[in-house]
Amino acid sequence: MARMKFICDAERCIECNGCVTACKNEHEVPWGVNRRRVVTLNDGVPGERSISVACMHCSDAPCMAVCPVNCFYRTEEGVVLHDKDVCIGCGYCSYACPFGAPQFPSAGTFGVRGKMDKCTFCAGGPEANGSQAEFEKYGRNRLAEGKLPACAEMCSTKALLAGDGDVVADIFRNRVVQRGKGAEVWGWGTAYGSKTDAKGAKS
Amino acid sequence: MSNLKRISGLASALLLVTGLTACGDKAQELAGQPKLDAAPYTGTGVKVFTESDWKAGDKNSWAQQLKTRAQYGQNDHSRSN
Questions:
Q1: B25-46 pLDDT, tens digit each
Q2: Chain B, window 39-58: residues with a beta carbon less than 8 angstroms from a chain A beta carbon
Q3: Helices B59-74, A165-179: crossing angle, 10 deg rounding
Q4: How far is CA A50 from the centre of its chain?
Q5: CA-based nearest residue to A170, from B70, B61, B63, B60
Q6: What letter would DSSP give residue A28?
Q7: A4-188 CATH, one of 1.10.10.10, 3.30.9.10, 3.30.70.20, 3.40.50.2000
Q8: Which of these, A56, A104, B75, B81, has the minimum number of CB atoms within 10 Å of its CB?
Q9: Subunit contact B49:A126, Cβ cutoff 8 A
Q10: Cα–Cα distance between A134 and A124 in angstroms, integer?
Q11: Percent of chain A scored above 90 by pLDDT?
Q12: Contacts of A9 (CB under 8 A, 6+ apart)
């Protein structure tokens, strides 16, 4: 098995925030904490693009490099996780992360010290798989249940792909090759209309 | 001569103390090492939430389960064409 990875297809994402909702529901994430969010570029302008962003489980994770208490670890499947019993909530990882993935809750299950919380690729944490302690600190461990992350599985347009890097890369590559680009894309004319030249001919 | 002896005695005592200071240093390894995490293919033991198409503890069947699930759930091209 290769490394676990997320890919978000900006051509497909419709900014429905289904992934965000799925994540919050699956892990009972407290208010004010968004392990995943949808970012839109050129919002409201024709050609706007949205992507769903969370921890990307970097191969050379900057959060791991800067953590002063070494609370991060990487699983055999390439998922970057952390131990909340070790985390001191200093926020260095937040400055280091280029995706803004680390979150710092100030109340609720995680306590007032605000220990860091982030996407776990639905792989739980260092507590026993499927235990109540794991759920309360890190959320559901779907990987250990033979499932993939809830955000990707719930994505209505299948813009967000998650799983074995080789498998999701193949799915994405096949999709890009088949759909073409611009006006070649199915539904383009319906969505954006067709250009008409001076003689009334459609292009 | 006695002064020289005294100075050299003091110097060697100082050297000895300085040398021993290093031996008395506390270990500076990071105190909080993360706990070891159980591999996901070992399962959760909660049957009701676990997919039935793989066997807990069998890494290959777990990996195959995730690949099949990714293809079925996310590869809409293969499902529609």
A1: 766 666 556 678 899 999 998 8
A2: 39-46, 49-51, 53-54
A3: 20
A4: 13
A5: B70
A6: T
A7: 3.30.70.20
A8: B81
A9: no
A10: 6
A11: 71
A12: A158, A159, A160, A161, A172, A175
Burial B64-76 (b: 16+ CB within 10 A, else e): ebbeebbeebbbe
Report phi then psi at A37, rounded to 5: -150, 160
Interface contact A161, partner B, CB < 8 A: yes
- pLDDT 10s digits, A101-117: 999 887 655 555 578 99
| Cβ contact B38–A163 (<8 Å) | no
A86 to chain B, any CB pair closer than 8 A? The answer is yes
Strand ranges for A44-159 from DSSP E: 49-53, 72-74, 80-82
A38-57 pLDDT tens trace: 999 999 998 899 999 999 99
Looking up tokens 């992934």 gives A19
